Amino acid sequence: xxxxxxxxxxxxxxxxxxxxxxxxxxxxxxxxxxxxxxxxxxxxxxxxxxxxxxxxxxxxxxxxxxxxxxxxxxxxxxxxxxxxxxxxxxxxxxxxxxxxxxxxxxxxxxxxxxxxxxxxxxxxxxxxxxxxxxxxxxxxxxxxxxxxxxxxxxxxxxxxxxxxxxxxxxxxxxxxxxxxxxxxxxxxxxxxxxxxxxxxxxxxxxxxxxxxxxxxxxxxxxxxxxxxxxxxxxxxxxxxxxxxxxxxxxxxxxxxxxxxxxxxxxxxxxxxxxxxxxxxxxxxxxxxxxxxxxxxxxxxxxxxxxxxxxxxxxxxxxxxxxxxxxxxxxxxxxxxxxxxxxxxxxxxxxxxxxxxxxxxxxxxxxxxxxxxxxxxxxxxxxxxxxxxxxxxxxxxxxxxxxxxxxxxxxxxxxxxxxxxxxxxxxxxxxxxxxxxxxxxxxxxxxxxxxxxxxxxxxxxxxxxxxxxxxxxxxxxxxxxxxxxxxxxxxxxxxxxxxxxxxxxxxxxxxxxxxxxxxxxxxxxxxxxxxxxxxxxxxxxxxxxxxxxxxxxxxxxxxxxxxxxxxxxxxxxxxxxxxxxxxxxxxxxxxxxxxx
Amino acid sequence: xxxxxxxxxxxxxxxxxxxxxxxxxxxxxxxxxxxxxxxxxxxxxxxxxxxxxxxxxxxxxxxxxxxxxxxxxxxxxxxxxxxxxxxxxxxxxxxxxxxxxxxxxxxxxxxxxxxxxxxxxxxxxxxxxxxxxxxxxxxxxxxxxxxxxxxxxxxxxxxxxxxxxxxxxxxxxxxxxxxxxxxxxxxxxxxxxxxxxxxxxxxxxxxxxxxxxxxxxxxxxxxxxxxxxxxxxxxxxxxxxxxxxxxxxxxxxxxxxxxxxxxxxxxxxxxxxxxxxxxxxxxxxxxxxxxxxxxxxxxxxxxxxxxxxxxxxxxxxxxxxxxxxxxxxxxxxxxxxxxxxxxxxxxxxxx
Lengths: 595, 351
Ligand SMILES: Cc1cc2nc3c(=O)[nH]c(=O)nc-3n(C[C@H](O)[C@H](O)[C@H](O)COP(=O)(O)OP(=O)(O)OC[C@H]3O[C@@H](n4cnc5c(N)ncnc54)[C@H](O)[C@@H]3O)c2cc1C
Ligand SMILES: Cc1ncc(C[n+]2csc(CCOP(=O)(O)OP(=O)(O)O)c2C)c(N)n1
Ligand code: SF4
Ligand code: SF4
Ligand code: SF4
Ligand SMILES: [Mg+2]
Fold this sequence. Notes:
The complex is a heterodimer of chains A (595) and B (351). Helices cover 30% and strands 19% of the residues of chain A. Chain A is an alpha/beta fold. Among the domains of chain A are: 100-202 and 346-410, FAD/NAD(P)-binding domain (3-Layer(bba) Sandwich); 204-344, FAD/NAD(P)-binding domain, CATH 3.50.50. Chain B has a single domain, classed as Thiamin diphosphate (ThDP)-binding fold, Pyr/PP domains (Rossmann fold, 3-Layer(aba) Sandwich). The A-B interface holds A 73-75, 433-434, 439-441, 443, 496-500, 502-504, 506-509, 527-528, 530, 544-545, 555, 557, 559, 561, 564-568 and B 1-14, 24, 31, 34-38, 40-41, 43-44, 190-191, 193, 217, 219, 223, 231-232, 235.
């Protein structure tokens, strides 16, 4: 293999599994260390720079970082990254003075954003500090998008949402409520320099089965949740069936618990391993007494005398891969209400089809995955509107990228010219056996989130269920982080091949051996490196024997013992900082550095 | 000395040996030696060899004297017995321990100072008695622990850290052992575990004493350019003469040892020591030939490594003395010490 090019920022970035997996590349280990030091405001600001909504995401994020977390590979469970984010947000101090300054002198460019969800808000967040005038058109009378209309208040308290949304609106964004954009043609004619479509995927899928339109007790999940959020719905029947087992279904069943539902069943077509809902959402729903019924396909709504009495399902038996099924029999489940939570679709009835904004055969706009530009120059899409329903953190990342494109577009720079990411590497050595980070491995187990007790939480719709980590839980959880951003950096000319690093490494990830092809090399290491998703760090030839040092990045616990035991400092522990590019590239290079 | 304990985190795919133990179960305390010391690598080789042969930790006794090298038994197999004796007395103490309990497996770890200066007499007599043990000399040419004075293994002309050359002729433990009847003699290098681990595994199965001289650079006092025991010098001058591995009993490969294997020595416990390559005309069971081969090659400045000599026909100390099969340590007290009447009777026989 060729020697690894560690000057490419993406090499060490990939070692930081959580940051790499985060769509917005949040610097997780850095903020966890700041929390450990009690520097909550700094931890919050490190978060805010990339993910914009730390308090919201600390409660609701889909957390792709956690399945990726290295701790999960060497211990049973990943670090509770998401809930630590909430700790930073809950305990932060005043931050107004740390936010980017908004220039009084504008740059003369006006941007229209459609929808006030996380995607548009991120665009505004990135463009306001550079002098743009941003106008957001919002259909509803409040900002936040699905974060307000669909994510229930028992998961995301309204004041948490409002506070973070206002940080952006208070930058001087012009927001027009109750202003659905009804014609893209008209909007394009009204003189904005660029348009960003962040209107989400607003249409809940329907289920056309016999009886569907003979009652008003069948609800479309996302519309029903919106009606609850805006105070139009206050109750539900005692027996509720939820069709579908995604995250929307989880919010629907748990909302039903709070509106008078007693016997609530989530009806799933497929077996449990194939559910779309995150495991923790399933757990939370079951804790609240919701029953999850697997292998049931809806067949028909049963209406008697104009009244919904229940539903007939086919009971299925699946093959081992849950690909093919066979119907066993039919069963009837009684119900007072049925909620359909089988997915969302994009819908753009307000975009005329002769504007050179192309749509594909599924009705999705044709959008460039890097620039987020549509087929019409100057019109950008992001969030759920671009590629269909995803989640908040993806909407944020789309917003960042679209903002870069808009800034380029307004300066007549090709949108394909993306500013490059940079990096900083800093030795963490403070003295003999002394490092600026806590390198001891703490075997403590993942802390369990405490919940408000069941009776209390059902009393009102908006009682936040999760209590957040207490001080002791926080202190323990932060120590579980392996500091994957503190990189092992190798200098081949210094190595005398004494084997000290290889002998001390607790997880056998180092080897000195003759070079070879990657697969051959992977099989010859101290412990075979079978996880092909993780890189091998390969050195140039070593001076004494021309062999190479190989490190399997997969399960290194960043304990620093290799560097501690190296007599020549050939290994060093260096903190890696990714400098992410944002629209305001000056702010990217001076990325938030805690004082 | 590292500030933290070795993390409990383990490689998720760690293999288990016949006892269900992983290699990490054979570790000891964290080393307090200088970072980069060859001794630590030997420790790692010992850990690997013991794990591979599925040694039961509680059946192992770790013996040592004084020196950096003699500290290392603390760094492997926490669950074993151990005795850290006075300077140079490891062979004598081990002889006593082996006499009292023949059931344990003994590993003595010593240094060139410990064994070739103050302890040389004890070492020679333990070799002559063929005490059943693995005897490792971690040979760095200096007294590491007392800050780098030349030891008796330092070559003439090899320079100290401050630049003075050594003037006294060296004692070569391999030649010495061969000359006084040693039955298993090897030399290796701390930086070559591929060679050292199989030698160690064979040593643990040898009938009597297995003596292994391991060049082990002292990174702090003897790893400079004028030294003949540095990493670089050893790498440049070491020549692996033999390539041996051990085929345990009850292994299918036993039947497959082909005629072209130069020499296959059957060990006492039925396992087979297979020499896959030796120099032409070399016979690892012929003491005279081995001695003269070594003399010739060493004259050329080569450091000959490998499992150099083995003789499985010499009885060990217990066999020579016809001692009881039951270890003395487990004999009932009355039998071990039958009282003054029995003593009187015994003495009577000599009157
Ligand atoms: C029930 C439910 C629960 C969810 N839970 C989570 C969760 O826990 N974690 C997570 O990460 N994600 C969750 N999601 C997904 C997440 O909310 C969305 O992916 C995210 O909000 C998308 O952001 P966006 O900015 O693209 O659009 P949206 O948040 O959908 O915002 C679009 C906005 O545009 C407005 N709008 C639409 N059309 C027009 C128009 N023509 N003119 C003007 N305004 C218009 C809408 O009113 C809305 O305010 C959930 C989704 C649902 C349905
Ligand atoms: C009776 C006695 N004499 C002298 C010493 C001082 N002393 C301690 S270690 C040592 C030499 C150790 O050299 P070596 O065995 O080569 O071990 P190394 O440190 O090099 O591994 C000496 C002379 C002592 N501890 N006890
Ligand atoms: S930091 Fe070094 S010693 Fe620790 S696990 Fe990683 S490679 Fe091994
Ligand atoms: S400890 Fe340092 S000098 Fe020794 S092998 Fe490792 S990197 Fe090389
Ligand atoms: S002084 Fe020499 S022998 Fe002793 S620990 Fe240090 S390097 Fe090893
Ligand atoms: Mg010595």
